[in-house]
Specification:
single chain, 186 residues, mainly alpha, two-stranded antiparallel ribbon, 8 helices
Amino acid sequence: DKEVRAIFLRLFAQLFQGYRSCLQLIRIHAEPVIHFHKAAFLGQRGLIENDFLTKVLNGMAFAGFVSERGPPFRTCDLFDELVAFEVERIKAEEGNPPKMIKHVRELAEHLFKNENPNPHIAFQKVPRPTEGSHLRVHILPFPRINEGRVQELLQEGLARSQGAPPATRGDKKCVVPAGPPVGMFI
């Protein structure tokens, strides 16, 4: 699963390399608008006649991609690193399948670590009940909940949360690396 995702991540990183150099920040509105200059992107790559890439750039998914990834100051991720810093590596691996496979496996491992930051915490599967388990009579009924104790716990939790500082996410925002200009990828 992670290796397939790593292949697609690498594919889109290759497809959109240099896209940041074609972003324009328009500040004439109350809220700044980010515009992607499609003609410049296709022209600098020599792909003006490429129907596939033109359709990709005209799609709603790419418009969402630009609005989400266009701001110059936001949380960066693995895709940003690939587009900005791995250009030469990806280009060098094109003729060498073993190196490409090794890189895909490294990306897959990185994706796995991002999704499972605490590998020592193992989630156990709940075993299926054995045959005939529903016929057993020795199962004790579920105990009744003590409403007074529930209210006490709620009050304690509220008291603690009012005195605690507001929770914030650990994501650090930074200036997104632009990477090489589009003209390098012809």
